[in-house]
Amino acid sequence: xxxxxxxxxxxLAPKARLDATPRSGQPTIGMVSxxxxxxxxxxxxxxxxxxAEGYGISPDYAGADAVIVNTCGFLDSAKxxxxxxxxxxxxxxxxxxxxGCLGAEPEYITGVHPRVLAVTGPHQYEQVLDAVHTxxxxxxxxFIDLLPASGVRLTPRHxxxxxxxxxxxxxxxxxxxPDMRGKLASRPAHAILREAEKLTESGxxxxxxxxxxxxxxxxxxxxxxxxxKDGEVxxxxxxxxxxxxxxxxxxxxxxxxxYPHVRDLIPLMxxxxxxxxxxxxxPFQHAHPDVLRRMARPAAAAxxxxxxxxxxxxxxxxxxxxxFIVGYPGETEAEFQHLLDWMDEAQLDRVGCFKYENVDGxxxxxxxxxxAEEVKQDRWNRFMEKAQAISEAKLxxxxxxxxxxxxDDVDDEAATCRTKADAPEIDGNLFIDDGFExxxxxxxxxVEVEEAGDYDLWGRIV
Length: 462
Ligand code: SF4
What we know:
Elements: H1 15-18, E1 28-33, H2 37-52, E2 56-57, E3 66-71, H3 76-92, E4 96-100, H4 106-112, E5 118-119, H5 125-135, E6 159-163, E7 165-166, H6 177-181, E8 185-186, H7 189-201, E9 206-210, E10 225-228, E11 231-234, H8 237-244, E12 250-253, H9 266-270, E13 276-281, H10 289-295, H11 304-314, E14 319-326, H12 333-346, E15 350-355, H13 373-396, E16 402-410, E17 415-419, E18 430-432, E19 444-452, E20 457-461
Parallel strand pairs: 1-2, 1-3, 3-4, 4-5, 6-9, 9-12, 12-13, 13-14, 14-15, 18-20
Antiparallel strand pairs: 7-8, 10-11, 16-17, 16-19, 17-18, 19-20
Helix pairs in contact: 12-13
The structure holds iron/sulfur cluster.
């Protein structure tokens, strides 16, 4: 372990090295970087992100609106030095965000320095930036900033993915995501809402909420409460969805597990005043309880058909999308037939299906009774035949209905749109091939559905 190079202390860092003399009125951050070269690289990454967002970097305590102290906790002496540096920053500046190795023990820090604004652990760049945004809100300047306020996006201008957490606390046997991405780490609700607000201000009309396990959002934060607007918001999927639904955009929830509290989301989806769409993307993966248990799925014991019935009784227009795995190790013909019967009852609107395959590092590889490839293929065919018949009947029932759609694309032949029941990239489309010339991507249009195909609809502007 090495201690900090002294010239990174904000009171000593030469301006030329930081090359970031703040302009007048620019929100400005100081950085005290302690510890080893890995911590130093973390500090550089944080500063790089802040510079890209338009923050100035102050070479001294006096010029900073807040100070980040990146701590070391390797030895007792390093812990003591970190606590001392936090104390100095509090005395000299007063507004201090703590990150780094010692941040893994937040009570240790707040026990000595209760006035710190936030404590985040090592490599939690996102959380440090969220804490900075809260302490010193960014002040976007489109003429100077390297990045637009809504960030650099790869999606079209009118929809955007909104990641609310990373990682997962489950251990499904066919999945290695928790090994790669770690335990659930939820972003603070107010940071997500601020990002969503920036996106809608920049023209986004549809927010696609994603994570590994959306219904578990906030569990790791113990559903903490943070200030938002004139009130407060809890880091809970219900509160987050309610607030997102007030931003004037469509809000679509992906990767929701059927935990009991999902029932509380359904009234929001039934409320025409709220933007949360009546759409749930729930990766059921299977329906037979024994297969689900062998998969070690969360909510394996949930009575999903009862849940679906309860949801639809509150929100009859609810669209359900899901994915399934057929041919999981040990899956018997009777278990597969149970899945087909379940599909008859569940009447899901949109379905994807995968044939099970081994993934390097997955625990399911070692399960007994792997299913032969030709049996998997046969089950996949039978499953998709059923899913497609259900989807076709559901689409056919929409003919004659009047509904709002969002325009994705306009070319010489038609406007390609989506209904509230269709997520971009994965679901179907509604095409308008008459009187569409004045439409633009992102427009919301009311149409009457005239025709239905296997996966898509056609309609006319009302
Ligand atoms: S499949 Fe299971 S373990 Fe993998 S991310 Fe989803 S819930 Fe987590």
